[in-house]
């Protein structure tokens, strides 16, 4: 019976690393029969500049490989991350995926769940957050839709190289951690469970959150191998094979 929820984050699919897409497709083959829904909590791709990126076969191939699963009725929904500059409905709908914007709250089994990538809650320097707000602003999104594909991918590729230069050598196990207080607005608004990604480090912050009846869970990244969060029979469980 398909009754599990799966939460994945930071797959960073890209032509340079086809093994990531292969691992995701293997995951779908294995878990689709038991999945009520699969949520991608940001950064499905290493970068994405809109539906026109599908014109590049090497970038479109992972979406085409996912489509057979959604055609069979599997619900796969995607939250935008800091690398998903324009991962909007026109990019995903042809392949049966759902775009949920930059955050999404819903009810399941009596739980009020909110999912958000977490890049605006992570303790990055203020100028880094300001830059992210700018690059994902309405004006920049409109520009990405109108400028030529080569220009969009050139800018996104440069931003990716810059980001790798800044954080590429850091060990996720030694990276800075979230301050649970950064997610307080979601709990104040009624969320009982908040799920994030971005840090590439799977961790249960519930104890540090110190908020009775609430959970804060971070999903690990896929750069060094698959990891995910699953929900079944009233319990959330972080899985790191």
Structural notes for this entry:
The protein has a single domain (4-239), classed as Purple Acid Phosphatase, chain A, domain 2, CATH 3.60.21. Helices cover 33% and strands 21% of the residues. It has helices at 18-31, 57-71, 89-92, 126-135, 138-146, 149-167, 184-188, 206-209, and strands at 4-8, 35-41, 76-79, 98-99, 103-108, 111-116, 193-196, 203-204, 215-218, 228-232, 235-239. The protein has a six-stranded mixed sheet, with no helix packed on it. A five-stranded mixed sheet has the order 5-6-7-9-8. Helix 1 (18-31) packs parallel to helix 2. The protein is globular, with a radius of gyration of 17 Å. The model has no long low-confidence stretch (mean pLDDT 90).
Question: TL;DR?
Answer:
The chain is an alpha/beta fold and 241 residues long.
Helix % is: 25-40%
Distance between the amino and carboxyl termini: 23 Å
Assign the CATH superfamily.
Answer: Metallo-dependent phosphatases
Number of domains: 1
Question: What attributes does this structure have?
Answer:
Purple Acid Phosphatase, chain A, domain 2, globular, 21% strand, alpha/beta
Please describe the topology of this protein.
Elements: E1 4-8, H1 18-31, E2 35-41, H2 57-71, E3 76-79, H3 89-92, E4 98-99, E5 103-108, E6 111-116, H4 126-135, H5 138-146, H6 149-167, H7 184-188, E7 193-196, E8 203-204, H8 206-209, E9 215-218, E10 228-232, E11 235-239
Parallel strand pairs: 1-2, 2-3, 3-4, 6-7, 7-9
Antiparallel strand pairs: 1-10, 5-6, 8-9, 10-11
């Amino acid at each position: 019976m398909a009754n599990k929820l799966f939460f994945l984050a930071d797959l960073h699919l890209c032509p340079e690393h086809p093994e990531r897409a292969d691992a995701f497709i293997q995951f779908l083959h294995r878990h689709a029969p038991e999945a009520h829904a699969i949520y991608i909590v940001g950064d499905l791709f290493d970068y994405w500049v809109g539906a026109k990126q599908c014109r590049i076969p090497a970038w479109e191939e992972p979406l085409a490989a996912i489509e057979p699963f959604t055609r069979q009725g599997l619900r796969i929904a995607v939250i935008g991350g800091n690398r998903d500059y324009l991962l909007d409905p026109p990019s995903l709908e042809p392949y049966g995926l759902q775009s949920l914007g930059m955050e999404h709250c819903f009810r399941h089994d009596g739980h009020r769940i909110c999912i958000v990538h977490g890049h605006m809650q992570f303790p990055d320097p203020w100028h880094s957050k300001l830059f992210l707000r700018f690059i994902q602003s309405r004006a920049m999104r409109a520009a990405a839709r109108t400028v030529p594909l080569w220009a969009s991918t050139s800018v996104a590729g440069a931003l990716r190289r810059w980001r790798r230069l800044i954080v590429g050598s850091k060990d996720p196990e030694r990276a800075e951690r979230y301050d649970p207080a950064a997610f307080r607005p979601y709990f104040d608004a009624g969320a009982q469970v908040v799920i994030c990604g971005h840090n590439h480090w799977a961790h249960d912050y519930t104890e540090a959150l110190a908020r009775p009846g609430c959970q804060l869970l971070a999903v690990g990244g896929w750069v060094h191998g698959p990891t995910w969060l699953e929900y079944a029979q009233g319990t959330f469980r972080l899985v790191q094979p």
